[in-house]
Design a protein that fits this description.
The complex is a heterodimer of chains A (404) and B (79).
Chain A: H1 6-16, H2 24-43, H3 47-61, H4 75-84, H5 88-99, H6 103-107, H7 112-117, H8 120-131, H9 136-143, H10 150-160, H11 165-177, H12 179-190, H13 193-196, H14 208-225, H15 230-245, H16 249-273, H17 277-280, H18 283-313, H19 332-344, H20 351-376, H21 384-403
Helix pairs in contact in A: 2-3, 3-16, 4-16, 5-10, 5-15, 5-16, 8-9, 8-18, 9-10, 10-11, 10-20, 11-18, 12-18, 12-19, 14-15, 15-16, 19-20
Chain B: H1 3-35, H2 51-66
The chains are: A mainly alpha (404), B mainly alpha (79).
Chain lengths: 404, 79
């Protein structure tokens, strides 16, 4: 046995503590985790998510804690399996479906198109991300931040670019919490005072039978067309069926309260534990955060542009402000439409009208994710050769229509 | 063709697919609303039974709310 002196004993003990392993990267991540906690607790930014994400990040970055998502045998390693094997995001969607009333969408179905238009932010960001040097898979995962849907962003990032999961999740949830700050300037810039004052007709009531059949119909239609979106759309619609069918009260209540809360804790801790200095402190993170903001802004603009087109087509019956709710972020984006509309005219109540495009945005983002998975998933990866084939087929198709 | 070119093609294809899928859903909703139109449920009278029962129920509710004894409260017909 080696001789133990007082100084060597202290040296050994110090080496065993985390203090001896603190370096610049670890210290920076600890500060970042504290910033998340501050923003969540003091500023109220998405506290239900940022508190567990921030605390997960704190635990993962304390040296020798073995609490990162990649420490085999550590607690968060097991939590992270729910992300890795795509269990938590679909379960969150089950809860979202149970919480969401599709009535406003069913009462004014044209608003579905606003949910589609807002997805342009996803694709514009995809193009810019590729131009900045990201691979197509990484760019697709970054672009989906524009869908303003955290579970979908995590789901797609894990499938296409797991190495970017931390920054993408943080960007998605941070910008979702900043919707009331990001959207209003864009909405005011793109609409006139007169447009913001437009009052919309009262929504038509919808029969309960329609509310029950709708989630089943969406599941069949969407999943026949885009099987890759099955976990997200399937669970979203099952949750909504629990809500509307009237015979699964206990399942509905569990889905919209305890289940979604438990899964949110597990998911957020898993995401936070994946944010280590090696994975987060990279130049790509800055790019992703910037691209995420751009994705949000362009998605908002896309919805408003179609809102203005619908206003013209319907002879002024649609207030373009509800287009901005086409980004998912339920129900915050709809509340922002209501707030900006009420600023122009205090008697203008747009909230329920904006809920239509808002829930359409959830479906639209899930469909956009399905498209990305169909193109870039493990089963089918698009290559330059595929792209040229598609162009060739498209050109042949157009030629056959016009020239026989 | 570079990756930016592919990304542009994906943008056109992706937005096209999203609009087609959501347009099909729109048609489905319109169809469902026509097949199963909303029918206003007939409004039932709020209170049934004879006058004395009604007065007893209203008195109990009001006294409980006001935290007074039943004898201290008088219920009168307004019309």
């Amino acid at each position: 046995m080696d001789e133990i002196t007082i100084s060597s004993a202290f040296g050994k003990i110090f080496g065993m503590t985390g203090i001896g392993s603190l370096d610049f990267g670890v210290m920076t991540m600890l500060v970042i985790s504290l910033v998340f906690l501050y923003l969540a607790i003091a500023k109220g930014f998405e506290p239900l998510l940022l508190v567990p994400i921030g605390f997960g990040c704190l635990l993962a970055n304390l040296p020798h804690s073995y609490m990162t998502s990649s420490d085999p045998g550590g607690l968060f390693y097991y939590f992270y399996q729910g992300v890795k094997h795509e269990i938590w995001p679909p379960l969150i969607f089950l809860g979202v479906g149970a919480l969401t009333d599709f009535g406003p969408l069913l009462g004014n179905p044209i608003t579905l198109l606003l949910g589609a238009a807002a997805q342009i932010g996803v694709y514009i960001t995809l193009v810019i991300a590729v131009a900045l040097g990201f691979s197509l898979q990484q760019a697709a995962a970054i672009g989906i931040i524009g869908g303003a849907d955290g579970p979908t962003a995590i789901f797609l990032a894990n499938k296409l670019a797991p190495e970017l999961l931390g920054p993408i999740a943080v960007a998605a949830y941070s910008y979702m919490s900043l919707v009331p700050i990001i959207q209003p300037p864009i909405m005011k810039f793109m609409t006139t005072e007169e447009e913001r004052k437009i009052k919309m007709e009262q929504l038509k009531p919808v029969s309960q039978k329609v509310k029950i059949i709708f989630p089943i119909a969406v599941t069949v239609i969407c999943l026949l067309l885009l099987p890759a979106a099955s976990p997200l759309i399937g669970m979203l619609m099952l949750g909504n069926l629990f809500r509307e069918c009237g015979v699964t009260k206990r399942l509905h209540e569990t889905s919209e309260t305890h289940l979604i809360n438990i899964v949110t804790i597990l998911l957020a801790l898993a995401v936070g534990s994946s944010m280590t200095a090696e994975s987060f402190l990279r130049w790509e993170t800055v790019k992703i955060i910037t691209l995420g903001l751009f994705a949000f802004a362009s998605a908002t603009a896309g919805g408003i542009i179609l809102g203005k087109i619908l206003k013209t087509v319907t002879g002024g019956k649609v207030n373009p402000l509800i287009g901005s709710a086409g980004v998912s972020a339920v129900p915050m984006a709809a509340r922002v439409s209501q707030k900006v509309g009420a600023e122009a005219d205090p008697h203008n109540f747009l909230l329920m009208h904006a809920m239509g495009p808002n829930v359409a945005g959830v479906i639209g983002t899930a469909v956009a994710a399905g498209v990305m998975l169909a193109l870039f998933g493990q089963e089918a990866q698009m290559t330059p050769g595929h792209a040229e084939l598609i162009i060739q087929y498209g050109a042949d198709f157009v030629r056959s229509i016009f020239f026989g | 063709m570079g990756n930016v070119g592919i990304a542009l093609i994906i943008t056109v294809i992706g937005m096209g697919v999203i609009f087609v899928v959501l347009a099909i859903l729109l048609g489905t909703i319109v169809l469902l609303n026509r097949m199963f139109p909303y029918i206003q449920a007939p409004v039932e009278p709020a209170v049934t039974g004879n006058d004395s029962e009604t007065v007893a129920v209203v008195t109990a509710a009001v006294t409980a709310f006001l935290k007074r004894k039943p004898g201290k409260v008088t219920i009168k017909r307004s019309q």
